[in-house]
UniProtKB/TrEMBL annotation:
The keyword Transmembrane applies. It comes from the Bacteria. InterPro entries: GlpM/YdgC. This is GlpM family protein. Keywords: Membrane, Plasmid, Transmembrane, Transmembrane helix.
């Protein structure tokens, strides 16, 4: 039941972004920064009642901000060269590489 609730929250946020896109371009760009997925991950980790695990998750989330900026910057620049779906896929690749480098996984 817990996973169902979280998936409904994610679906609701997707619907809100789609509806906001009909009214303009700024709000759909701001909404992904709403901490919905951070909320979900912190609630899952928080259910363990382990303060250190909770704090570790917070720090890991904060470390992804540069990767998100790399993703958005790549999409911003890529749209001048590629169609939107390709620009987003390239942005996701840059995000993945950035995250792997930041977390020392490469």
């Amino acid at each position: 039941m817990d996973i169902l609730l979280k998936s409904l929250l994610g679906g609701a946020m997707t619907a809100v972004i789609a509806l906001a896109a009909k009214r303009g371009n700024t709000l759909p760009g701001i909404l992904p920064l709403f901490p919905l997925f951070g909320f979900i991950s912190l609630m899952i980790i928080g259910a363990k009642n382990d303060i250190n695990a909770f704090r570790e998750t917070c720090l890991a989330s904060a470390k992804t901000l540069p990767a998100y900026v790399a993703f958005v910057t790549t999409c911003y620049l890529g749209i001048a060269v590629f169609p939107a779906p390709v620009a987003v896929v390239v942005g996701i690749c840059v995000w993945t590489i950035s995250a792997l480098v930041m977390f020392g996984i490469t």
